[in-house]
C-alpha cells in the first residue's frame, strides 16, 4: 500500500503549477477538469513518489493558515542531493518566504518554510 496523491486547493492554479515546476522540476501528469462545476486541477508528478493534485474552484475559501493548526501540517519533498537542496534554499530566500529552519544553521538535511499561498513545505535530501 502507498499514498497515490495528495490534494491541495489553491486560489492561483497556474501559479501553483509553475511554483512546483520551478522549484522541484514537477511535471503535469494529467489534467482533470469539470467545467460544468468550475473545478480545475493539475495532477503533478514530482519524481517517482506520490503525486500532488493542485485543485481550484471559485468558491474555495482562503483563510489565514496557522502552521500550528490541526489537519495536514505540511508536504515534504525529498530531493536527490544536498546541492539540489541548497538550490531550493537559495530560491526560498530570494523569494522572501518565511523559513522556520534550514540546514545551513543546524547541519541537518531539511528546510521547513511557508511557501506558495502560505502552505508549509519541507524539503529534504
Describe the structure.
The chain folds into 2 domains: 1-59, 2,3-Dihydroxybiphenyl 1,2-Dioxygenase, domain 1 (Roll); 67-125, 2,3-Dihydroxybiphenyl 1,2-Dioxygenase, domain 1 (Roll). Strands 1-4-3-2 form a 4-stranded mixed β-sheet, with helices on one face. Helix content is 23%, strand content 35%. The two termini are 23 Å apart. By secondary structure, it is α/β, with parallel strands linked by helices. It is globular, with a radius of gyration of 15 Å.
Key words describing this protein structure:
four-stranded mixed β-sheet, 23% helix, 2,3-Dihydroxybiphenyl 1,2-Dioxygenase, domain 1, 125 residues
Question: Briefly, what is this?
Answer:
The protein is an alpha/beta fold and 125 residues long. The chain is 23% helix and 35% strand. It has a 4-stranded mixed sheet with strand order 1-4-3-2, with helices on one face. The chain has a 4-stranded mixed sheet with strand order 5-8-7-6.
SSE blueprint and pairings:
Blueprint: E1 5-9, H1 13-24, E2 27-34, E3 39-45, E4 51-56, E5 75-78, H2 82-94, E6 98-101, H3 103-106, E7 110-114, E8 120-124
Parallel strand pairs: 1-4, 5-8
Antiparallel strand pairs: 2-3, 3-4, 6-7, 7-8
What is the number of beta strands?
8
Total tally of structural domains? 2
Binned strand content: 35-45%
CATH superfamily of the largest domain: 2,3-Dihydroxybiphenyl 1,2-Dioxygenase, domain 1
Amino acid at each position: 500500500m502507498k499514498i497515490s496523491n495528495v490534494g491541495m486547493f489553491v486560489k492561483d492554479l497556474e501559479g501553483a503549477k509553475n511554483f512546483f515546476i520551478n522549484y522541484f522540476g514537477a511535471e503535469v501528469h494529467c489534467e482533470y477538469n469539470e467545467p460544468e462545476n468550475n473545478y480545475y486541477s493539475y495532477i503533478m508528478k514530482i519524481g517517482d513518489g506520490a503525486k500532488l493534485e493542485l485543485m481550484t474552484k471559485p468558491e474555495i475559501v482562503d483563510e489565514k493558515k496557522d502552521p500550528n493548526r490541526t489537519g495536514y501540517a505540511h508536504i515534504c519533498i525529498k530531493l536527490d542531493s544536498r546541492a539540489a537542496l541548497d538550490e531550493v534554499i537559495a530560491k526560498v530566500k530570494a523569494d522572501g518566504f518565511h523559513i522556520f529552519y534550514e540546514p545551513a544553521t543546524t547541519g541537518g538535511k531539511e528546510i521547513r518554510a511557508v511557501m506558495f499561498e502560505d502552505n508549509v513545505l519541507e524539503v529534504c535530501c
